Amino acid sequence: MSISSINYSSSVLGAQIRNINQQLTDLSTQLATGKLSQNYSGMGTNEGFAIAGRSQLSNIAAYTDTITNVNVNINLANTALQSLTTIRNTVQTGSASTAQDLNVNGQTVAQNTAASQFSSMVGVLNTQSGNRYLFSGTAFNTQSVANAGDIINGTTTQAGFKTVMAERQAADLGANGMGRLVQTQPTPSSVRVSEDVAGSPFGMKIAAVSSTLTGATVTGPSGSPVSFSVDLNGLNPNDGDKLSVQFTLPDGTTGQVDLTASTATPTPIGSFAIDATTPANTAANLNTALNTAITKLANTSLVAASAITAGDNFFNTASSAIGAPVNNQAAPPAPISGATALSGASPSNSISPGFAAGDTITVNGTTLTFVSSGATGNQLNVDDSIQTLMSKIDQITGTSKPSTVHGGSITINTDDAASLNITTSNSGALNALGFGSTPVTATQPPLRVGSSPASSATTLVNGSANTVKWYTGNDGPGSPRSTAMARVDDSVTVQYGAQANEDAIRQQLQAIAVFGTFSTSPTSQYAGGQVSALSLRVTQSLTKQPGQQHIEDIQTDLAMAQNTMKDAGTRQTQAKAQLQSIIDQAESASPDQVASEILSLQNALQASYQVTSNLSQLSLVKFL
C-alpha cells in the first residue's frame, strides 16, 4: 500500500490558518477604525447609499458657507441702513426746530449739522464687505457714491450740486425777483399779472384767483402765457374785501397771496389802503401791495421750493417730457386744460385734429387703443379728456409724481427717464397735444438750466456731460434686491442686493444735501423766511409718507432673506443628521459584533494550531 504525505493536509491547514489570520487582521482594523473597510469595495452593497449621502453632505456644506457669507453682507448692510435712519432722525430734528439764527455763512446750526451728516451718509453708502460695495447693485466692484466734496462742490470739469442749485434759483426768481412774473397796470384802475413765458419750467405759475372786491372785475387766469387781471372799474372796494391769488411753485407746492382792502391807518400788513376820495389811488395801492406780496412770496417760499426742485434735478432719476403750449378749438386764446377733450366737432373744447376710433398710443410698450365708446382696460373713448389720457399714461409708467397740464402745456412725469417712450398712429393728434415729434422721450437727468443768463432761461437740458454723477453703481432696470442673489438650498435662492439710488435712500440723501448746502445772506430781509420755508420742506421730505419706500422697507426685505436662509439652515441640519446616519449604517462596524467575530476566529485559530501540532507529531509507527 502507499501512504500519502501529510504535506497535502498541512498545506490545506496552512491556507486555512492564513485566511483566519487575515480575517483577524481585518477585524482588528475594523475595531480600531470603526469602519467596515478602508476601501469602497469592502463596504458592501449599501455603499451606494453612503456615496450619495456624502454628495448631499458636500452640497449642504457649500450652502452653509454661502449662508454664512450672505449673512455677513446682510448684517453689514443692515448696520449701514440703521445708521442712515439715525442720520435721518438727527437732521429731521434739527430742521423741525424753530431756531433760525444765521451764522456769517448764512446757515443755521441745523444746516451745518446736515452738511456734516451728508458726508457721513456718503461714507455709509460706500460700505464694503471684503471687496464688495454693498450699495452698488451688480456693479459691486465700483464705489457706490461719488465723494461728498465732489457731489456738493463739483470737480475741475463737472459742476456739483451747489452750482446746479444756484442756477435753478436764478432761473426761478428771474431778473426782477418776482418768480418770472410780469406785473403791469394797463389802466389807472386795473392790475395785470402774467407769467413771462408760456411752457417755461421756471418760476411761479398762476393757479387760481378769487375776489370779494366790491365792484371789481377779475379776468383769468387764462391765455398763453397765463395771466390774470383785476379791474376796480373806478370804484373803491369795501373795507375787508379780499383778493386771493394762488400760485404753483416748482416743487409742486402752492403759495398764496391774500390782500385785504383796508381803511385803517397805518395800513396793516397784508392789506392795501382804500383812498376814499380817489379810487385810482386805491388801484395804485393794490398794485403796490400785490407787487410787494408777490416779491416776498418769490423770495421766501419760491426760493425754498427752487432748492428742493434743484435737488430733484440733480439727484432724482425721475424726469419729464414737456409739450409745447397749445390752444383748444372752442377758444383759441384759451389754452388746453385737463378737461379738454381728445376729439370733438368744432367748435368744442377739444384738440384739433383729434383722435379717432382705432388710433393707438403706445407707452413704454403698452398700447392704448381709442374706441367710440365703452372703453375698458387699456382703451380710451375718443371724447375722453386729456386728464384721462394722462392718468392712463401715469398708470403705465408708474410715476410717483402725476403728470400735469398748465398754461396749455402738458408735462408727462416719469420715475425712469431712460425708459419713457411714447408713440402713436396719429401724429397729428399728438402734435395737437404739444408734442411735435415721436417718439416722445424724457429729458435725461441730471437737469441743468438750459441757457445763460439763467434768469431768462426757458428750458432744462441734459447736464450729464458737465455735471457730477452722484450715484456711480449699477442703475439698470429691475429690482435692486435682484442685483445680488445666492442659492442656499437645492431649490431656494435669496435676493439681498441694494442700491444707493433706491427712492428711500436717494430722497434722504437729496433732502440732507439741499438743507446742508443752501445758504442765504444773513442781512437779507427775506433770510428768515427762506430758511423757515426750506426747513418745513426738508422736515416733510424726511418724514415717512404713505405709499413711498422707506429705509425700513429695505431692512424688511433683507430680514426676509435672512429668515429664508435660517429656515434652509434648519432643514439642512436635520438632513445632515439623517444622511450621516445612513452613511454610518452603511460603513460603520459594530464593536460588539467585531469583538464576537474576533473571539470566534481566535478559537478557530487555536483549534487549527492544535490540529497542526498533532499532525506534526504523527509517524508511520503511530499511524500503523
**Shape descriptor:** elongated
Secondary structure class reads: alpha+beta
Could you tell me the strand content as a percent range?
15-25%
Task: Give the low-pLDDT segments.
Answer: none
Please count the beta strands (DSSP E, at least 2 residues each): 21
Largest sheet: 4 strands, antiparallel
How much helical structure, as a percent, in the residues? 40-55%
**Assembly category:** single chain
Could you report the average pLDDT, rounded to the nearest whole number? 86
How big is the Rg?
42 Å
Lateral arrangement of strands in the main beta sheet: 3-4-7-6
- Termini separation comes to 12 Å
Number of helices: 13
Characterization of this structure:
This protein has 624 residues and is an alpha+beta fold. It has 13 helices and 21 strands. The mean pLDDT is 86. Strands 3-4-7-6 form a 4-stranded antiparallel beta sheet, with helices on one face. Helix 2 (47-96) runs antiparallel to helix 3, helix 3 runs antiparallel to helix 9 and helix 6 (279-315) packs across helix 9 (503-517).
Which helices and strands appear, and what pairs or packs with what?
Blueprint lengths: L5 H28 L13 H50 L12 H17 L2 E2 L2 E2 L14 H6 L7 H13 L7 E4 L5 E6 L9 E7 L5 E6 L4 E5 L10 E7 L5 E9 L8 E3 L5 H37 L3 E4 L37 E4 L2 E6 L7 E3 L4 H12 L6 E3 L2 E6 L7 E3 L2 H6 L14 E3 L10 E3 L22 E5 L2 E4 L7 H15 L9 H15 L9 H37 L3 H26 L3 H4 L1
Parallel strand pairs: 9-10, 13-14
Antiparallel strand pairs: 1-2, 3-4, 4-7, 5-8, 6-7, 8-9, 11-16, 12-13, 12-17, 15-16, 18-19, 20-21
